[in-house]
Structures are given as structure tokens and as C-alpha cells.
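Regression test attached.
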Amino acid sequence: MPQALVERGGSPHWHGPLKLLSRAERIESGWWDEGERGAAGDVRRDYFVARNPLGQWAWVFRDAEGWFLHGLFA
Amino acid sequence: MVIARLLGAIGAASAALSPCAVASAEPYRLRADAFASAADPSGFVMLQAEAREREPLLVDAEALVWTGVGLDRADDPEARGDAVLASVRLRDPVRYVDARFGRLFFQGGAIRPQHMDGAVVGFRSPTGATTEVFAGLPVAPGSAGRRCRCSEKWRITARSARPDSSIRPRILPFPERRPRQSGHRARSGCSRCRKHWSNGAAARTGMAR
């Protein structure tokens, strides 16, 4: 499950402030199942590759609810 | 008319841009977000507008501009400033029809979203079966509006799905038709495209671990 990120000054933090390294890539769920039971609904996420001060690379996204950490690069 | 009002609303929103400004006044809804890091330059600006004045037609528009990363990565197309999204969407409240046009990401099912300039129209039957048809031109990262030279061809894609259960639709045939590109490395792409796609593969691989 994506992990909600702390925001300070509008900037996402994960072991320090994250620097965005790539432009956004939009991934969204199907418009057709919004409102249907058990469906994800009309979700729109903008994904970025980011790096924290420790040099760790992360895959983060932003949606209407804020910033989330979705995964790490090994 | 509605689109013109939306564009005017977007202009008003951009004038009042703040790190996160939301104005909610039915039948219009506006949202403007900006992210910027001055110490290590990078950021983006996003504008969203939604109009419900003329139901049963819902209209929303959004624009996302990536301002780019610092000059130390100026040769990386992913790091250059670019208009990532600039699209208008029309749909009915029951979601039987959904149409988008402009610069957008087309979700073609199980493959990576395609960044395109074009239009996509989707239909959903009362039984839940859906069909989407897309036509457009690929966008190269960092091209600031210029399209990828290696694929300056119209691309037409159709996708159809039907509910396999009450939870998820199952993807059926995914035909894609491209004009013949003789003597052209259409599958591998140009150096810019190859880099773009390898970056995507790295992202997916990283996520799988």
C-alpha cells in the first residue's frame, strides 16, 4: 500500500525533503467504474521519480489527497 | 461556450496561484497547485477546472507544466521543462460516454500509458462493457511541444473490455494500427525515445522489488 508522505512547506518529505528528478507521468483508473461497488473509481495520480538527502531513489505520486510513497528503486 | 468559460476560469486561477489554492463555487470548481524547490531547482504547476453548469454534460480541464530540473541535467529530456498535460474532458454524469482531447496520457490497458497529443472517446454499455478509441501523435519528453521525430505518424488504438466479475473488467483484444514506416526503427525508437522507455522499465523493475 502506498505510504502517505509528510509535507512541510508544501514539499514532500521522506528522510528529508524529496527532490523531484523526472517530470510527471499520469496514471489513472478507468472512468467507467466510478461509483461502482468494489471498484477503484476515477483515480488520477501523477507519478515522479524523486531522491532524498540520503541518496535513496523513490517512486512517489501526488493526487488530490496529497503525496504518497509508492516504491523504492533498488 | 462552456469551454471558453473554463479557459477564462483557468486564467483567473493562474493569476491567483499559490502553493495550493482551491476555490469551490458550484457550478464551477477550480484548483491550482504549484510545487517548487528553489535550493535544488525543480517543480511543476497544475491547474484544474470543472464545470457542472450544463448537466447532463460535465466538462473539466487540466494543465500540468513541468518546470524542469537544474542545469546540471540539461541534457536529460526527462529533466527539461515541458507541458505534460493540457486536456479537456467531456462526459455524462452516468459515465456512458467520456471524451478527452489535447495532450494526455492514454491508458491502453496492460501497457505503459502513452503520452500523446490527440483525442480519446470511450463508451460504456449498461452491462459494463467498455470500448475506447484513441487517435493521436506521440509526444517526446522534453520536446516542449515538438513531437518525437521517430514516430511522427498518427497512431490509432482501440481497446475493449467487459466485466469479468463485479470487481474488474477484463481486457480483450488490443489492436493498434500504425502506418507503415519503411526503413525506420519504429519499434526501438530514436535515442530519445529509447531512453524514455528504458527509464520506464527501470521504474517498473524498481517497483517490483
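Expected vs. actual: identical. Chain B has a mean pLDDT of 67.
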